[in-house]
């Protein structure tokens, strides 16, 4: 059914996860792209616990996550897939929904996290083929996944969330990052439009975008090794790393999972990680 770029590893010992009885206990379903490293890996690792069913996607398999899910008998459906292909993206999300049967008691979340930085170059020197792959992965894929998600869940009244991982580059221009800045700005606008449209639905999906700040991920490593002639701001990111000012992905993942269903988050909004911290401050970080 799938090309060589699309392999699904199933980590689950029970016979089936579909449930037809209305009295079944609540299940949390999480769909996460870019799960092999960075924020995606941190989120997936924290979600591997009883009561959750996880559908993870990345170009390469994260064996540690597979082993952890297996050891805890938590259902993890891991798809090795190149989501820069629109066909693969559509196959992936439809395969996810073929595995589950939502009930009124379930909660379901789509986290559009997969992304790429390249090409890094002035506009006059852009590699068009690489830019096309970039825009497919960073913008078109979240659009495809969100579209199918909205259609498949429109009859469910329980909590439904789409989280788009954005960037400060969506509103701050960086020389050499024309493609990345454009794709993230587009993702923010997709979020706002979808939120507006959902506001008139009977059972709306809450959709929001998050700018998570500067995090120690593989993308940051790539930034620090980029030719300064292509990315003049490189040394700024090197200094932030040397000064220990990059955030740990685990910390960001914990904040996301502590707030993702919070009613204070307005659908269609683009929020910062600092705003999410403020949401949990009264209960989690208040001084005695």
Spatial separation of the terminal alpha carbons = 57 Å
Number of helices: 9
* Order of strands, widest sheet: 1-4-3-2-5-6-7-8
Taken in chain order, the helices and strands follow as EEHEHEHEHEHEHHHEH
C-alpha geometry: globular
Q: Which percent bin holds the helix content?
A: 40-55%
Mean pLDDT: 89
Count of DSSP strands: 8
The CATH architecture classification is 3-Layer(aba) Sandwich
CATH topology: Rossmann fold
Task: Look at the structure and give the CATH class.
Answer: Alpha Beta
CATH superfamily: NAD(P)-binding Rossmann-like Domain
SS-based class = alpha/beta
Radius of gyration: 19 Å
Description:
- The protein contains nine helices and eight strands.
- It has 288 residues and is an alpha/beta fold.
- The protein has one domain (6-215, 251-284): Rossmann fold, CATH 3.40.50.
- The chain has an eight-stranded mixed sheet, with helices on both faces.
- Helix 1 (38-47) links the parallel strand 2 and strand 3.
- The relative contact order is 0.13.
- The model is unreliable at 1-6, 12-23 and 284-288 (pLDDT under 50).
Brief synopsis:
This protein is of the alpha/beta class and 288 residues long. The protein has a single domain, classed as NAD(P)-binding Rossmann-like Domain (Rossmann fold, 3-Layer(aba) Sandwich). The chain is built from 9 helices and 8 strands.
Keywords:
8 strands; 288 residues; Rossmann fold; disordered N terminus; globular; alpha/beta; disordered C terminus; 9 helices; single chain; 8-stranded mixed β-sheet
SSE layout and pairings?
Layout lengths: L5 E6 L16 E6 L4 H10 L4 E7 L4 H10 L3 E6 L4 H13 L8 E6 L15 H26 L6 E6 L12 H21 L7 E6 L6 H7 L9 H9 L6 H11 L10 E3 H12 L4
Parallel strand pairs: 2-3, 2-5, 3-4, 5-6, 6-7, 7-8
Antiparallel strand pairs: 1-4
Helix pairs in contact: 1-8, 3-4, 4-5, 8-9
């Amino acid at each position: 059914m799938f090309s060589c770029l699309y392999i699904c590893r199933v980590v689950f010992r029970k016979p089936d996860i579909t449930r037809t009885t209305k009295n079944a206990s609540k299940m949390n379903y999480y769909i996460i792209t870019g799960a092999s490293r960075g924020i995606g890996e941190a989120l997936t690792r924290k979600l591997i616990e009883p009561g959750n069913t996880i559908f993870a996607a990345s170009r390469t398999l994260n064996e540690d996550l597979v082993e952890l899910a297996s050891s805890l008998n938590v259902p993890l459906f891991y798809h090795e897939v190149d989501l820069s292909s629109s066909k693969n993206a559509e196959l992936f999300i439809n395969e996810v929904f073929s595995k589950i049967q939502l009930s009124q008691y379930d909660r379901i979340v789509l986290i559009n996290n997969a992304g790429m930085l390249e090409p890094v170059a002035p506009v006059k020197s852009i590699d068009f083929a690489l830019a096309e792959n970039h825009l497919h992965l960073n913008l078109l894929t979240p659009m495809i996944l969100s579209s199918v998600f909205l259609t498949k869940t429109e009859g469910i009244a329980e909590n439904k969330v789409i989280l788009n991982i954005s960037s400060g580059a969506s509103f701050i221009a960086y020389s050499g990052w024309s493609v990345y800045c454009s794709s993230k700005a587009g993702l923010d606008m997709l979020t706002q439009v979808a939120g507006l449209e959902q506001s008139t639905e009977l059972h709306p999906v809450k959709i929001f975008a998050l700018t998570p700040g500067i995090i120690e991920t593989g993308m940051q490593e790539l930034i620090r090794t980029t030719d300064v002639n292509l990315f003049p701001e490189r040394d700024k990111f090197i200094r932030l790393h040397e000064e220990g000012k990059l955030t740990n992905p685990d910390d960001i993942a914990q904040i996301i999972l502590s707030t993702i269903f919070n009613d204070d988050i307005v659908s269609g909004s683009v929020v910062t990680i600092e705003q999410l911290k403020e949401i949990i401050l009264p209960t989690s970080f208040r001084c005695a």
